[in-house]
Design a protein that fits this description.
heterodimer; A: 292 residues; mainly alpha; two-stranded antiparallel ribbon; 1% strand; B: 310 residues; alpha/beta; ten-stranded mixed beta sheet; two-stranded parallel ribbon; 15 helices
Chain lengths: 292, 310
């Protein structure tokens, strides 16, 4: 009997390792493909020019490929999304872990899980029909598409992610210190400000960075509300993001043309951006000491 | 370390097993097909039929080929002289350029184009043939609240160039009686087929302003015009027919975008929808093409918003 279990144990571990190796190999080939297709562009245009020029005219002669506006646009939308969603998520998490008990808590957590499952087109469409029109009707904007609307949309989308991550780390802190706090007779408010938030600092930072990565990669919802104009990023102006550019133009780019390769090169830049973000993420994870 | 090597070995074996899966089947299949051909059937089996090209024409052809292979499972149901093989049709996108390229390279049976075939492309083909399914037209549409259509019912090419290149920034600059509000220009993605037609027929060498809103689909473009009173854009003919009253199509150089004008070619912002081929059609390809050009085919072309050829 014991032998069978040992065998099963080994088989499971082998299957797991094979599967994860397979994933890594697959990922490697995807990255390889993107680099292979995108690299040719850098023979004609230097990387520096590619990311510091404004004009994106891949079909003109000579083609102009500059993604500065999209690069800044991607960073600005994600940043806005985080700035808006962080305070709200923090508040929501404190409420869920400190105040909400029993059925209410289960209900709220279920709703938040549901929010994660909503497809991004739906968020994009709702925000196009409500926020964009709101700015057009009541603020007299020529067109309501703007970085601000994109930021708000992203904030709503990453909020459930942040809330569930922060709540998890806060729950851990509470289980650990609740008895001591009660024994000392500190108020809930004092505990929240002086124990809960500082102790779950690590969890909050990790949740923020995760949400940032998620926001940078988000495509469809942003494409629908940002206007896709190659302009200098301004809070209430139209703009375009890296992933948005790829979605918009990949379908019509002629195979192996400079346009097609330029879009792959845009993908390379986006990947490098995400990589840098992940490296910061790892560095902070090691540095910051959590109490949890 | 030893364990890692073992694991790698297992992994490699798995990969090889997966890779080995498909080959033997093919080897077995080929002699069978050859046998069939010599004994009972007079027409060579065709294998997978591949259609490559325009994403505009894609939905039309996809719907038609789906109906075709639902109606007849096997080719010999279409015509008893065809080989007894399953109808297998694959549709690839990639745009009109890819459609022409696939025929030149011989990687597809039929090419789908939503623009005229270039002379350069014709030269690369020995025996070029084209079949026209219909015409797609872009109408310059504005919001009904915009007073422009009451003041003038036509826009000239020159006015359109100035609007789309950003020279006219407000409606007042176009017509002094209009309010001093921003012109919100909506386009499709600059590299796509729809924009290509607009560029060649109206803009010529002029570049479209960077201030335009690029819609991710024709649906999004039309929604924008319906929702924003200062918007102007090129909505496809079919979508405009479905939204009469919600947006107003303008005349271009005095020509109204009607079916007759589009077919006769006097309305200039239009493009043909073509299926092309180099050399003789195989019997199966001919049968499929006959279905696409049949009454039902034309029905689908109209349903999806294009002007059918017949």
């Amino acid at each position: 009997m014991k032998k069978i279990y040992n065998l099963l144990d080994k088989m499971t571990s082998i299957v797991t390792v094979v599967m994860s190796l397979f994933t890594v190999v697959l990922l490697f080939f995807i990255v390889l493909q993107i680099f292979k297709e995108g690299w040719d562009v850098f023979k004609e245009i230097s990387i520096l020019n590619f990311i510091t020029q404004n004009q994106w005219r891949p079909l003109s002669t000579p083609p102009k490929l500059g993604i500065k506006n999209m690069l800044l646009g991607t960073i600005l939308t994600s940043f806005l999304g985080i700035v808006i969603s962080l305070p709200i998520s923090l508040g929501a998490s404190i409420f869920i872990s400190m105040k909400a008990k029993g059925k209410l808590r289960v209900f709220i957590l279920a709703l938040i899980d549901l929010m994660i499952g909503v497809p991004s087109v739906v968020y994009g469409f709702v925000s196009f029909m409500i926020l964009v029109l709101f700015f057009e009707r009541y603020f007299n904007f020529g067109s309501g598409e703007s970085f601000f609307v994109a930021g708000v949309t992203l904030a709503i989308m990453v909020m459930p992610l942040m809330i569930s991550a922060i709540t998890q780390s806060m729950d851990k802190v509470i289980t650990k210190y609740q008895t001591s706090a009660k024994a000392l007779g500190v108020s809930k408010e004092f505990m929240t400000l002086n124990l809960l938030i500082p102790a779950s600092k690590r969890g909050i930072i990790i949740a923020t960075l995760l949400a940032f990565t998620r926001a940078m990669g988000e495509t469809m919802a942003v494409v629908m509300v940002i206007g896709n104009s190659n302009l200098k990023p301004m809070l209430f102006g139209r703009g375009i993001t890296l992933s948005g550019l790829i979605t918009l133009e990949m379908g019509s780019a002629v195979l192996n043309s400079i346009h097609y390769k330029g879009l792959y090169a845009t993908g390379v830049v986006l990947m490098i951006l995400l990589l840098i973000n992940n490296m910061i993420f790892e560095a902070i994870k090691k540095r910051v000491n959590g109490y949890d | 370390m030893k364990r890692a090597i073992k694991l790698m070995a297992v992994f490699m074996i798995l990969v090889m097993m997966l890779a080995g899966c498909s080959k033997p089947v093919e080897v077995e299949a080929t002699p069978q097909e050859v046998e069939q051909e010599t004994t009972e059937v007079s027409v060579d089996p065709i294998g997978t039929v591949i259609l490559t090209g325009s994403s505009t024409l894609g939905p039309v052809v996809t719907q038609l080929t789906m109906e075709y292979s639902e109606n007849n499972q096997n080719w010999n149901q279409v015509d008893s002289t065809f080989a007894d093989e399953k109808i297998d049709i694959v549709i690839n996108g990639g745009g009109s350029g890819a459609g022409a390229k696939s025929i030149i390279e011989g990687s597809a049976n039929l090419g789908m184009l939503s623009r005229p075939v270039k002379d350069q492309e014709k030269e690369s083909m020995a025996d070029f043939k084209e079949y026209k399914l219909g015409t797609d037209a872009l109408t310059i549409s504005i919001n009904p609240e915009n007073k422009l259509h009451e003041l003038q019912d036509s826009l000239s090419t020159e006015e359109l160039q100035k609007i789309f290149s950003g020279e006219y920034k407000t409606w007042k600059q176009l017509n002094a009686e209009l309010p001093d509000e921003e012109i919100v220009v909506v386009t499709r993605d600059i590299g796509g087929g729809a924009h290509g037609v607009f560029q060649s027929k109206i803009m010529g060498d002029l570049e479209v302003s960077e201030n335009v809103i690029q819609a991710s689909s024709m649906g999004a473009l039309v929604t924008k015009i319906i929702e924003n009173k200062n918007a102007i854009g090129y909505a496809s003919f079919g979508v405009v027919q479905q939204n009469i009253g919600n947006l107003v199509p303008m005349k271009v150089d005095g020509v109204e975008p009607t079916k007759e004008n589009i077919i006769s070619g006097s309305y200039i912002i239009s493009r043909p929808l073509l299926v092309i081929k180099d050399g003789e059609l195989k019997p199966q390809e001919q049968a499929l093409l006959d279905f696409i050009l049949s009454e039902r085919g034309m029905e689908v072309v109209s349903e999806l918003g294009f002007v059918a050829e017949n």
